[in-house]
Design a protein that fits this description.
- The chain is α/β, with parallel strands linked by helices.
- Helices cover 26% and strands 20% of the residues.
- Strands 2-1-3-5-4 form a five-stranded mixed beta sheet, covered by helices on one side.
């Protein structure tokens, strides 16, 4: 799959751990419902490998990246917010199983590409495998898509 597009909308997370699968589930919903966005835009299910297999191989064509993911924002489960990459503190960055920060490659790109994170407050991220989003997070998918659209249009202006 080529990622040589101006706008990347990337759902990150692990569907095996409850609400952590939010990003991929939003991308799946958009694809299943033929939801499209303006401009040269691609929808990517980045799962847990996005930082290492996508963001470390930048294309000159990239202008905007919107990450869809969960974030503990101390808010009501299912609440959506837009974060800048600078809002993710080093001490709060998700570390993968190899101890590598999942946002590290994005910090290298931030001076060349507009990056926004559309984040959802999770309700259930279990320690043991459990497939499926909590109702609060699942119910936030339509509002997430609207937020992604608004963010993308703002970045394209």
């Amino acid at each position: 799959m080529s990622y040589n597009h101006e706008n990347l909308i990337v759902g990150c997370g692990n569907i095996l751990f409850g609400d952590d699968g939010f990003g991929p589930e939003v991308i799946k919903y958009m694809k299943d419902n033929n939801i499209t966005f303006p401009g040269d835009t691609i929808l990517i299910d980045g799962a847990t490998s996005a930082p290492h297999y996508i963001f470390t191989l930048p294309e000159d064509k990239w202008r905007n990246i919107i990450i869809i993911d969960i974030a503990d924002m101390n808010k009501k489960p299912g609440q959506i917010d837009v974060l800048d990459i600078e809002d993710v503190l080093e001490s709060e960055r998700y570390m993968d199983v190899h101890g590598i920060s999942a946002t590290y490659p994005l910090h290298d790109l931030k001076d060349k590409v507009n990056i926004k994170i559309v984040a959802c407050q999770p309700e259930n991220v279990p320690i043991d495998m459990e497939i499926g989003l909590s109702d609060a997070v699942k119910d936030s998918i339509p509002s997430t898509i609207k937020k992604v659209s608004t963010v993308l249009l703002g970045l394209m202006e």
